[in-house]
Amino acid sequence: MSKAKENKKPKRWVGTSLRRKEDDRLIRGHGKFVDDNRLGEMLFLKMVSSPYGHAKILKVDVSEAEKLPGVVCTLTGTEVASLMQPFMEIGPEPGAKIVDYPMAVNRARYQGEPVAAVIAKSQAIAEDAAELVHVEYEMLDAVVTGEDAIQDKVILHESSGTNLVWRGLYEWGEVDKAFKEAAYVVNIDRLHFHRFTAAPLENNAILAHWEPDGRLHFWCNNSFPTFAIQFLAPALGLRLEQIHVKTEDIGGSFGVKITHYPQMAVCALASRKAGGRPVKWTETRTGNLTASGHCNERTYRNTRVALDKNGVIQAIESRQIDDCGAYTRYEPLGAVIWSQVVPGVYRVKNLRIDFAQVVSNKCPCAPIRGYSRLQHLWFMERVLDICSYELGIAADEMRLQNYIKPEEFPYTTPNGCVYDSGNYPKMLEIAKELVGWDRWVKKQQEAKKEGRMIGIGIGTTLDSGTNNFGQSRIINPYAPFSGNSEAANIKVDLDGNIVVSLGSTPQGQGHETTTAQVVADELNIHPDMVSVRTGFDTEWNTYTGHSGTYASQFAVTGLSAVHGAAQKLKKEMKKLAAYALQAKEEDLEFGVGNMGPELRVKGTDKSINYWGLANLVNVNNAGLPNEIAELTLNCRYIYRPPFQIPDLKRKYGNLTLTYAAQLHIAVVEIDPEMYTPKILDYAAVDDCGTVVNPMIVEGQVRGATAHGIGAALMEACVYDSVGNMLTSTFSDYTPITAVNMPKVHYGHIESPSPFSFNGAKGMGEGGGAALHAISAALQNALFEYGITIDDSFTTGNTLYDALVGKKVMQRANNVKVERGVA
Amino acid sequence: MRDQIPLVPIEVKVNGKSHKLEVEPRMLLVELLRDGLGLTGTHIGCDTTYCGACTVLLNGNPVKSCTVFAVQADQGEIMTVEGLAKDGQLHPLQSAFSEQHALQCGYCTPGMLMSSYSLLSKSPSVTDKDIVKGIAGNVCRCTGYQNIVKAIQLAAQQTKGR
Prior knowledge:
The structure holds two protein chains of two kinds.
Chain A: H1 3-8, H2 23-27, E1 43-49, E2 55-61, H3 63-67, E3 71-76, H4 77-83, E4 107-108, E5 114-120, H5 123-131, E6 134-139, H6 146-149, E7 164-172, H7 175-180, E8 184-193, E9 205-210, E10 216-220, H8 225-236, E11 243-247, H9 261-273, E12 279-282, H10 285-291, E13 297-307, E14 313-323, H11 334-337, E15 350-358, H12 373-391, H13 395-402, E16 411-412, E17 418-419, H14 424-435, H15 437-449, E18 453-467, H16 472-475, E19 486-492, E20 498-502, H17 511-523, E21 530-532, E22 536-537, H18 554-581, E23 588-593, E24 596-601, E25 607-609, H19 610-618, H20 626-629, E26 634-639, E27 656-670, E28 677-687, H21 694-713, H22 730-733, E29 745-748, H23 769-782, H24 796-803, H25 811-814, E30 815-819
Parallel strand pairs in A: 1-12, 10-11, 14-15, 20-21, 28-29
Antiparallel strand pairs in A: 1-5, 2-4, 2-6, 3-5, 7-15, 8-13, 8-30, 9-10, 9-12, 11-22, 13-14, 16-17, 18-27, 19-20, 19-26, 23-24, 24-25, 27-28
Helix pairs in contact in A: 8-9, 12-23, 17-18, 21-23
Chain B: E1 8-14, E2 17-23, H1 29-36, E3 55-58, E4 61-64, E5 77-79, H2 92-99, H3 109-122, H4 128-134, H5 146-161
Parallel strand pairs in B: 1-5
Antiparallel strand pairs in B: 1-2, 3-4, 3-5
Helix pairs in contact in B: 2-5
């Protein structure tokens, strides 16, 4: 260790903004993403996709494509269906009757659905050949909204006979009583959460190699590979052991890369058909936008809110339709995941939600950043916000009235979830200070005199992390999963180096760095002395059935596993060192000496370095006593949070271990001529318990903020009535750029979680605070114009239609208040 | 290669090293760099000149190499992200990106670095507004951009100081 490092060594590495271990290779252009792999004899796959949202496939003719020199083989939907079993369905009937193959068989159900594939010696030849595949279609009527789909006038899946995937009534507390006793009842006819997508900058990419001996290798960027292989193995008739999945650097996922196992199956079948040659598929951006995965679109009908005279929400009831696109894939988990955050950040105790999920002729959904809770939290924020204006209570006051109070934590929600810790009023106070609330309120009043429309809005949200897979049984009592787990392995290598492998699939979250911080603290060494392997590999044997990177959990599941493995290793190292140094274990300490990391007898110069320990176990081990001979210095640990299976009848139980919170305030002005909303000021406050690396946490907050602002104002997956996706390139989808991004004032508090070993909470998803805050800011600006912000996506166009055309967002058509009910 | 189109001989200098190659007329510059020369630091993100992950310098100017033909680079000098560090020593922009946490997944980073390199080589005296304009054609899905602006400003200060 250099002197400089020794001097700078903090007491603990956890809690410091350590520069990331990942950065060096990435800033040099030496990162290794899937498409950077080049194998000998490698072939290239191009998908032929349906141009129709809904069509019968009458004929697929690949003969001309196969004649093109350089084309090795082709695949069609019919052929794929003959080579594999359909993917399993997570949910019960009627959704379970959907037959899901990775390619359209006889019928295409969304624009961009693969109908054939061409495998050729070069990408260019594959592209040429794809154009020579002739597909005859008969266009069918499409169904493109959840509200239409549930009427079953056009049915997507003949095998199911209905578009309904799942329907369930969620009811907690005494809803009818609360409505009877309410001082006010606010009725909101319709709210809508729009479709957008994650659009990671690296598209999906898969390199599959199905060797003639039956071993199937995937180099891919799937972000939940243990889930993928559990879908793939039965479908392809393989044992899990025959499937090898490896990820390295992943260019962002935000959840969307969880659901590309269908494309993995196509690439595998292509490799086998090509005689066991490796086949690479890299998705185009249009492919990614049209056929990768969108976030769940949700419509909230007939919402009724009961409030007391002070504006405290007593009960909510609502009928909700979740549109999951053409196939279920990860669904219908979204039909229960939202209930991790049933009351949002509020004390409401009585709820009745009639929840239905349907398929439509749109891209299938994926569990994208904020998955399902985001939609519900936006709903809760809209409900609270709309009620505040209807009752004439200031939006900030309304929140303070309704927030769960700091002294109420740990707080049990109406459905049995336990919010671990938090302090929402404090976050509001900090955010107000950061954004200059009072100054903006004054400016807003002055601007109003000039006819300018400025709004200030608050979004308070949760990022529930480390989920209990037992909640899937609320959807399907026979689902064979529950709890959660993550694995880690730490070893002292032959040369004395510490090597850690993880079960996660990081995509920018800095797991190599935070892992090294935890291990360095345990061993009292520098994080540079800890090697953390990049990515995920089934062959490392460092995974459980839950392993992966999703659902805001690494700080808890991943680091708990790392911590547990380090504890095991330390025990072994102590035992071994005590033997080697002829000392008592309690007299030993960990540290760094002249020969590198070591264990030494306190207060003496007697020590043994890691190489010495590794040597005793692996190389120079004759004559070791029995109690030492069992040591491996190679320790695997599995972390399991203490979950129970929920009460299925009551839909009650603890569904998530930790609840990080974010509170954002947006100041938005609506251009008086163009009606475009523009952000004037912005603050984001975060509370994810004890912070492992402040720089990384702030980075996640900023990133989630950009995603949310993009989604609120710029990014939407727009379809026309026949199922054409109108935003299928970046030029139409317009991902947020530096030009559109306001300066974000960042603040944070720490409410340590009592449920994680380190007090940390998972926090990568962010809970969509920006969407909530922007909707609230627009509401603040436009309530006096008779506008109710009823959609999560707002552009200049919609505001023009609202303010000038009086066609949309009209309060008079949507909201009704009953007073003095009680 | 539906019809046998003759290959075109070209000569390019990439990160100071000369290459004589024969390429298909339709080959894109990004394909030449990644597949022809194995310089996989330059990435493809959108195929349509929007996201800037493929940004490289061609004769000193930033271009999006997914919409430049390799033959257009004939006799040209190209600089990619792999050319930023000299003798293994990071360029100040590279260090600043790491220091300011201006990257997460790192997929946009090579393009971001090349756009900002181009910006600062014109003048290291830049306002934050100049920087935002300079990276307007580069999409990052992870960071929210603010740390990128900070990193470029830090590198600019350091460049001025030298």
